Amino acid sequence: MTRSFEKVGVVGLGTMGAGIAEVFARAGLTVVGVEADHEALGRGRGNLESSTGRALAKGRLSEAEQAEILGRITLTTSLEDLADADLVIEAIPEIMDFKRTLFTELDRICEPSAVLATNTSSLSVTEIAATTGRPGRVVGMHFFNPAPVMKLVEVVHTVVTEDGLAEEVADLARRLGKAPVSVGDRAGFVVNRLLLTYLNHAAVMLENGLATREGIDTAMKLGVGVPMGPFALLDLIGLDTSYEVMCVLFQETRDRRHAPAPILRELVTAGLLGRKSGAGFYNGEAPPTPPAAGKPTVTSVAVLGEGAEEFAARLGDAGFKATTTQAATDATEDADVVVALSHTPVIELAARLPHPRRLVGLHLVGEKLAEVASTVLTSPEATCAVEGLAKIVGRVPVHCKDRAEFVVDALLYPYLNDAVRMYDSGYATMDDIDAAMRLGCGYPAGPFETIDTLGLETVRDGLRALYAEYRDPAFAPAPLLDQLVTAGVRSIRGLS
Ligand SMILES: NC(=O)c1ccc[n+]([C@@H]2O[C@H](COP(=O)([O-])OP(=O)(O)OC[C@H]3O[C@@H](n4cnc5c(N)ncnc54)[C@H](O)[C@@H]3O)[C@@H](O)[C@H]2O)c1
User: Which residue has its alpha carbon closest to ligand 1 atom 30?
Assistant: First the structure.
């Protein structure tokens, strides 16, 4: 018999719980929201009011609808008020001991038929379920931030989940207007295993001084089309939650790539948790825009590398004396600056020039971004001039060090590689992974769609370059990717 979910409990009304309560109430369900104490309950009420208030301000909700939604939500500090709930979902901090204690309590209070769900991002649902006398009726129901906006819900089943229950919970998610993806119980599930690993990589990159936080955020937004750069997104998710998720991932995999970046721990210890505490990587809501590059003072430019002709022509149209050259030493003698397009590492070229201080690497990504890479020999004046030239050809410059694949590709390719490994391990299908990343993160395309767009060989070769630079086994191309390139296969999605 199909269960009917009419009354739900939401425990914890922080970043996620308030949004989840709103989602259930919007769909017409009766909601009981539980917080730890009266002070937290006041904050939870504030979270609910400001979230529905934003929808009201944007015209997505009328005042009457807002009142109706809030009217369906009862707030309390007593778990006993959940005694007659059909389903309870918890959204308390990502700490196993907290969750275990809570589920033991919920198991005592709720009807034996009630379903208990966790919104955990990474913890073992199996372990949480095992603390109850109803492990078959405990599932993961993983919403994404902000819950009222993001379409995806990962429905996590364990080896002991009752037959049919995951599908019933998926039906409930559909009733809420969400798109469920059914997954097994593995740390981070689909989205966070890929997403948080990429965000953590960005934090490591920041610590290594490859680029600034604004630069990395701008590069990813303009270069890949993601709705938020990694640091703005870490602030939205919460640095404490992100740190805990990385710890759980590392504990399971012992993969260096999953070791939380030390800067995360430092910020969390300092109480800088992101938006929820008012400051994290950024101090306000919106990341400041990077300072504009000055007008270039150079008059002559030598351009070499892939796309040199077109770039030089654009500069010529803008009044510069621009020449192209295939060899690093030709025609560069008299130029004020030398632009090496899409060449990594730039230092190899610079070392061959009589005036290496004038050489700057430039990587044009998509239609809007230009990564400007200076070497250890490049002069600040040359870097500044090339940033100005990038603006003249209509690009936003982002300065970075001369490292393999610069910023965007260095972050993107390992993420794509992780997705290939995930698929190859049999954990999820390509369609599910693509859908999960699009719907859970608002990405313009899923990883397999992106691999096909970029070309398998490009991604494989980029990974090889990253591996050669950093010697991190995680950057070595996944064997499946390598084999597909060797076999001449052009579409990875053609396999599914
Ligand atoms: N932040 C995200 O982007 C995100 C996304 C998806 C899932 N999650 C998961 O959702 C869960 C909550 O994360 P969050 O970011 O909303 O955390 P949060 O710190 O913003 O909110 C947690 C809330 O739980 C309350 N709380 C703590 N102990 C409680 C108890 N025993 N009873 C009732 N309330 C209690 C706290 O007062 C707080 O309001 C975590 O498991 C996290 O991994 C987070």
Answer: 36
Average pLDDT for residues 114-118, to the nearest whole number? Answer: 98
Give the sign of the dihedral formed by CA 42, CA 44, CA 45, CA 49.
positive
Q: Does residue 327 have a pLDDT over 80?
A: no
Q: Please give the positions annotated as active site.
A: 121, 142, 154, 192
Q: 475 exposed, middle or buried (CB, 10 Å; 0-12, 13-18, 19+)?
A: buried
**What pLDDT is recorded for position 79?**
98
120 lines ligand 1 (CB under 6 A): yes
Q: Which whole number is the average pLDDT over 305-316?
A: 94
Alpha-carbon span 42 to 35, nearest angstrom: 9
Q: Which of 48, 51, 76, 92 to mutate to test the pocket of ligand 1 (most atoms within 8 A of CB)?
A: 92
Token pair listed for 322 = 């621009």
Which parts of 290-366 fold into alpha helices (H)?
Answer: 308-317, 346-350
* Whether the CB of 10 sits within 6 Å of ligand 1: no
DSSP classification of residue 440? H
Expressed in angstroms and rounded, the spacing between residue 94 Cα and the centre of ligand 1 is: 7
CA gap 495, 483 in Å, rounded: 13
Confidence of residue 292 (pLDDT cuts 50, 70, 90): low
Q: Whose CA is nearest to atom 36 of ligand 1?
A: 12
Cα end-to-end distance, the chain, whole Å: 34
The finding on whether 102 has its CB within 6 A of some atom of ligand 1 is: yes
Which whole number is the average pLDDT over 415-437?
96
Read off φ and ψ for residue 240, nearest 5 degrees. -65, -45
Residue 40 CA: nearest ligand 1 atom is 37
pLDDT, tens digit, 9 for 90 and up, residues 57-89: 999 889 999 999 999 999 999 999 999 999 999
CA of 12 to the centre of ligand 1 (A): 6
* 139 close to 157: Cβ distance less than 8 angstroms: yes
Q: Establish whether residue 110 lines the binding site of ligand 1, counting it when its CB lies within 6 angstroms of any ligand atom.
A: no
User: Once rounded to an integer, what is the mean pLDDT over residues 244-259?
Assistant: 94
Q: Checking DSSP bridges between strand 321-324 and strand 138-143, what pairing results, if any?
A: unpaired
Q: Does residue 118 line the site of ligand 1, with CB under 6 A?
A: no
| Total number of residues shown for the chain | 496
Q: How many helices (H) and strands (E) does the chain have?
A: 19, 14
Nearest of 141, 149, 133, 189 to residue 51 by alpha carbon: 149
pLDDT at 290: 53
